[in-house]
Amino acid sequence: MALSADSGANPDPDAGPAEGTELLPCGRTLQEVWDAWDEDRATGDPHYAACPHCTAALHGLRMLDDFVRTARTADEEERRADGRADGARTADAVTGRVMDIVRRELRPGRSLPLGEPDEEAWIVEAAAARAFRSAVDGLRGVRAGSCRIVPQPAEAVVRVRVEVAADLSRGFPELADAVRDRIVTAARDVVGLEVAAVDVAVVDVLVDGGWERAAADLRGLADAEDER
């Protein structure tokens, strides 16, 4: 999928990235990553296999491509079913959703080290936070929102702060313990991080059918956090 009309490299490698070009922490620009992926050169470059920043960007691009293809097919089918020829409105909707994915997936936050100090293994903060939120959402009557991960001095050790909304089926101490257990287990078994502490903030109590609204509000906060 061509993401830019200008796929040429910077003619002066000593001049630095052009104004407005996003520079990844590894020193490569997002444009370079896009071009390598678009021209099918990424698989032959060992840098992309080892670099956590480029790997995260490539993952986001693949997700973006899959989304665009699916959205285009769905919108075409919807227009045919409704007898509409003008796809401007649905195209705007697709563009908005694409940009949401770009903001979430290509700006993944800091890289967190995994394993022993001499191992070159990393995970981006946004990916780890999504894994933790998913683990918490598996608890009955609980929805996770904002999740912040703070590296500790020891390698592969982090402190986690998570906000949740929950019903009244558990007392708050029991709820906090259940959330901590889910995050610690996901960190160990899924992500590969050791958690030094989990701070749990209960930001809403879900009663009287407030699930859908609270879940949407929390997800909106989490998505906004992933963009930062």
Structure commentary:
With about 230 residues, this protein is α+β, with helices and mostly antiparallel strands. It has 2 domains: about 1-110, no CATH class; about 120-225, Alpha-Beta Plaits, CATH 3.30.70.1350. The chain is about 50% helix and about 20% strand. The chain has a 3-stranded mixed beta sheet. The chain has a two-stranded antiparallel ribbon with strand order 1-2. Strand 1 and strand 2 (about 120-125) form a beta hairpin. The model is unreliable at about 1-15 (pLDDT under 50).
Describe how the helices and strands are arranged.
Blueprint: H1 30-38, H2 46-50, H3 52-82, H4 88-105, E1 111-114, E2 121-124, H5 125-137, E3 142-151, E4 157-166, H6 172-191, E5 194-205, H7 211-227
Parallel strand pairs: 4-5
Antiparallel strand pairs: 1-2, 3-4
Helix pairs in contact: 1-3, 3-4, 5-6
Keywords:
228 residues, alpha+beta, Alpha-Beta Plaits, 2 domains, three-stranded mixed beta sheet, two-stranded antiparallel sheet, 5 strands, disordered N terminus
